[in-house]
Structure formats: C-alpha cells, structure tokens
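USER:
Working in pairs, take the chain set out below, taking as long as you need, and write a paragraph about the fold.
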Amino acid sequence: MSASIPTSTSSAFLPLPPAKDIPLTFTASLKSWWAAGDKQGTASEERLLRRLPFFQPEQMASSTNDSPVIAHRERVQLAAPKHFLNTLSIKSTNPSPTAPPPVRLGFFFRNFPALAQWAGHRGTDVFAVDWLGMGRSARVPFTVKAKRDDISGRVHEAESFFVDSLEEWRAKMGLEKMTLIGHSLGAYFSAVYALRYPTRVHKLILLSPAGVPRDPNNLTMPSRELTDEGDSRSTISTSHSAVAASTGGVRQIREEQKAIKEKESRSRRLLTYLWEEGWSPFQVVRSTLFWGPMLVGKYSSRRFSGLTEDETRDMHDYILNITLSKGSGEYCISHILAPYAHARMPLVDRIAALKLPITFIYGEHDWMDPQGGLQSLENLRKAGNHQSRMYNIPYAGHHVYLDNPTAVNELLVAELDDAGEQLYLFAASRS
C-alpha cells in the first residue's frame, strides 16, 4: 500500500460551530426549523467532511502534506442557469497513467477513507456526487409533461432529469469512462445511466437497488425506511465480511420481509397510503412545519444508533437540512416507482442489455426484495454476460454502507480491483 492517509488537519480549519443537540421539545424543534437554510446546510455538510483527514476546505490554501489524496468540495455548474451538481472530489496526488477508471458514487462519510486509500494506491480519483435536485445539488423545478397513462413517457422524462445531468457532469469533468456505485434510487439511476450511455461505464456496483423486481406484490417495504433501526453490532466486530449470495440466503431475507409485512402497523399502512398518493417522506416532514426537526430527530436517534453521539448529532443536522430544503428531484419518485418501490419499468426487464460487469449487494435485513437481483443475474447470464455477481452484507439493512461499513468497504475495494475469484451467482446457485 502507498503512503497512509494522515491523521487529521482539522486544526488548520477556520472555526465551525458544533451542531446543535437533537431537539426533544417543541421549543427546540421550532428554533431548529427557523435556523435551517442553505448556510446551515453548507455547515452541516462541512462538519461531516472535516472528519476526513484529507479534506481541504475551499477557503484553505493548498496543502503541502504527504497525503496520497486531497479532497475538496465544489459545485460543478451545468449549462442551464442555476443548475449544478454538488461534488466531493477525492483526487490522487500522484496520478498513474495506468490507473483504473474514476469512481462516481454517493455515500456515507465512513466509506470515504477506505476508498481514498484505494484511490491513492491506484493513482486514480473518486467523486461523490449528489444527483440533480437531491442532496446539496441544485433544487431546480421538476415537472413531467407526459400524460398520466403514458407510463413509458413519464418514466423516460423522470429518468432523463437525472441521468442526462450526470452525463453533462461527466463531460464537464473530462472523464472518459467511470465505475458507478449507487445506493437505492441512486443505484437505479446508475443502471439507467449505463443503459443510456453504455460506452461511458466500466462497471456497476449496485447497493440495495430500488426498482429491480417485476412483481408488484414483492416484499419490498419502503415504510421500513422510517421505522427500522440501525444495527450497531457491526461497529463492535470487524470479522463479519460480505458473503456470496445464494438462493438459500435470499430465501431467508424474504422470509423475514414476509413476517414483517404481515405485522405491518397502522402507521406503516398510513405511510404506504401517502406513497400511493405521491407523497415523499420529505414532503411529509415539511408539511409538519415546526415539528419537522423533532420527527427527523427521532429518525436520526434510531437510524444512527451505531454511531457516536457527536457523529449522530452531525448526521442529524445534515439530514435535517437536506429534508427541509426545497422539493425538487424527490417528485420523480411517483413517476418511476409504484407503491412498495415497484418500478413502473423494472430493471430486471432491461438490465440484460448491458455487457459490462455488474455487482448487486443487499443487506441480510434489507427491505428491498433481493429476488430481483437473482433474477437479473439469470437474465444477464442468458444474454451472455457472465461478469455479474451478488453479495449479502451481514448485520445490515437497506443502508448497508452505514450499518456495516467495514464489510462494505472491503467488498468495494475488492470489486474495484476485481480481486479474488470471480463468483458467478445465478438464481440456481448453491443454497
């Protein structure tokens, strides 16, 4: 391995006030709601990025340390006025002429050090990009002109909003080809991008992807996003690595999903109803006005239970400001996904057109139905693509990268290096 990542440079940063405590009372929630905005959102993001020892704030002079990578944040402007993609660039300080293609992803801060170490070792770059209309990218108006019964037209317009802006970003950054890593809806868009621009993608790594299965009665339960807790056991042990997926492993995940679905509570049924009516979780929170920060606080305390108190507070502040931001890309959801995150044009029926390596990754307690992943591998095999595989992450739910970052980081680095045996896993694989 090349030079190690330095421990920290935070002492050289300009002062940044700490995140406020998660609100437990209405008064605290009101104050938090009143303070939210773009300035506070910028600070919340920088707090998380300053945890990375190789991060360099915009106002800081170029570093002279011996770090193999340097990271900085920027808004990459697109052609349309006020359109930009928020980007974290992690660049090698010693680029290699034989470096693998750059990696484009959107992730959690605990994944960045391992990926930065890989980038420094291989002499390549890693980019974390917020999709247009999401995260801290431009919140521009999102509309669909296609009629309600024109499903393919609605889906195409909604997908174009995201993948065409990513293609414009790629050209602006001067990247010839990329490995795309995406999670949930981001994984769906990554696959769609590859379908539309196949010559620009080297490999796809899809973490708990949305919109894969065909069956509208699949076991996917998006309401669990607001009720599931993080699995803190993964922070105690580092020995629980990813395992090759099998029909038996998928069966166990689906049996757990079925049991939870049968016990669906009244509150979950309400969330499902709101989904059917086109509401996003962000809209629900924004509609509660002053109570919003308290609702996000309950989610943060439960979902980030495996983090330290400071990390949980910083994550809450970031999630809160993202949630309260102007609605934009979230309005695509009802055009692309039907209730229970069933895609109106499922990837399982489209992905076989790709001739590149694809890796599916699911958590062992995932609420996304992994059966779609196995069926996709079978369809890819029938089409002659034997470069794809699938893994399960132990002690992890839908947010696999957060619940078990050690296992996910190890797997991502191995996949990026194409290390180890090539495990071709299909629907008929061992149980």
